[in-house]
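Q: Joint fold for the lines below.
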Amino acid sequence: DTTNALDALSQEGLSEEPVQQEKETMGSGGGGTREVVATEKKKKQRRRKVVRKGGDEEEDEDEDEIGGGCERQREHPFIVTEPGEVARGKKNGLDYLFHLYEQCRDFLIRVQNIAKERGEKCPTKVTNQVFRYAKKVGASYINKPKMRHYVHCYALHCLDEDASNALRRAFKERGENVGAWRQACYKPLVTMAARQGWDIDGIFNTHPRLAIWYVPTKLRQLCHAERSNAAASSSAPGAGGAIIAHSF
Amino acid sequence: DTTNALDALSQEGLSEEPVQQEKETMGSGGGGTREVVATEKKKKQRRRKVVRKGGDEEEDEDEDEIGGGCERQREHPFIVTEPGEVARGKKNGLDYLFHLYEQCRDFLIRVQNIAKERGEKCPTKVTNQVFRYAKKVGASYINKPKMRHYVHCYALHCLDEDASNALRRAFKERGENVGAWRQACYKPLVTMAARQGWDIDGIFNTHPRLAIWYVPTKLRQLCHAERSNAAASSSAPGAGGAIIAHSF
DNA sequence: AGAAGGACCAGTGGTCCGTA
DNA sequence: AGAAGGACCAGTGGTCCGTA
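A: Joint structure:
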């Protein structure tokens, strides 16, 4: 439906970075491990196999060549754009971002139809299987970390397009970066949840285009924190049920 | 509600077997691996750490002692019983089996309430988390392989109690074992699915006590096979839409 | 033989952090 | 600095098969 029209929103061409090659470092004991301070509970360990272009191999000197076999491409970064505005330069706009969510929905529907056809388990959410399918059919610009990262921004766009549009205009005008805009998308969603009995899962599941997305952990945590906050305020003497948003 | 009344259905005492102790065999290469012929696709490898009672240790000679610290207990096996009938001897009846499903439902509800309290993700199905909870609160007789094994039997009990009861009486009379009864539970479910557009997921999800259980893979496959079968028959010249159950 | 369940494994949800 | 995404990891769904 809107799929092809919006494809034009993506800038042609992609950012480039050198392809990495993996070298096995299995069984090398504790070397290369790194302590990570976990924000909660346990600490984790993470081992990474990271190697630059092999020093022994012949390699192309020209980093600017286009279509070279040795370049890994990544999408242009997002910038805050107004509704309808196409990003200039090596950037992508927010209409394009939201369009990616619609594409994932389309891929999910196809995966569901295949599963029904085969009599297999049918996913109700955008799962790893859907991301794999997207890759398989050539939509390599769709990946899980990116989609999960901006889910709540898409949620606001779905649930209150006017508020979403107003936020985009305000943040563009102030010259804020994408990260700041993304952070700001949480607050109106928490306010909506407050009005609906703090049922953020219910809010997602009631909306046909949003129901296929997992509620982001951080949004869930913010809602929970605010609910506790509101409950404490309303039970405090003289607070009279007012909602005070200390955590923002 | 019915929980305590039905607890009496379980035979007191449990079957006994020696406790096993694990010995680490990490890093011992390919020793102990065993080829398994997979029924589909790939072959799998499975490594098991299995050790009998340590030969060096002092051990109790008396295998019959009750409450000995070195006995692992497992539930009595099920036998086919009529509705309302309590199994005699070291056996459990089918009312007790179905009661375990109700207990799991109760545990799920408690896990859900805890999750909601904490603002965490709330399971809608009986998941590993629920089985862990059951173990934690002392219901060690509940475990995942057992519950998954008999889900479709419980489904029939939920969806058509009369048919389920009739099947139990018939199989008891014929002196069939639990395995045979369990196999026979598939057919009436497939017939029900045929009547409802082959939507076995819909059938499960519509029933309040069944909706919390995953549809068993085998039941799903049987429904799919029968649907294909029925479609082929009805499109064959002169078959006139009759459903012919070749696969049973 | 028939059956209960510990323990395994492929693929999941979630996101960190090496990368540019 | 701000951002995209490969790749990791703890815990899942599913059930095999060593056990008695």
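Q: Anything notable?
A: Residues 15, 17-18, 20, 34, 36, 44, 46, 48, 50, 74, 127-129, 144-145, 148-149, 214, 217 of chain B lie near DNA strand D (CB under 10 Å from a C1'). Chain B has ten helices and four strands.
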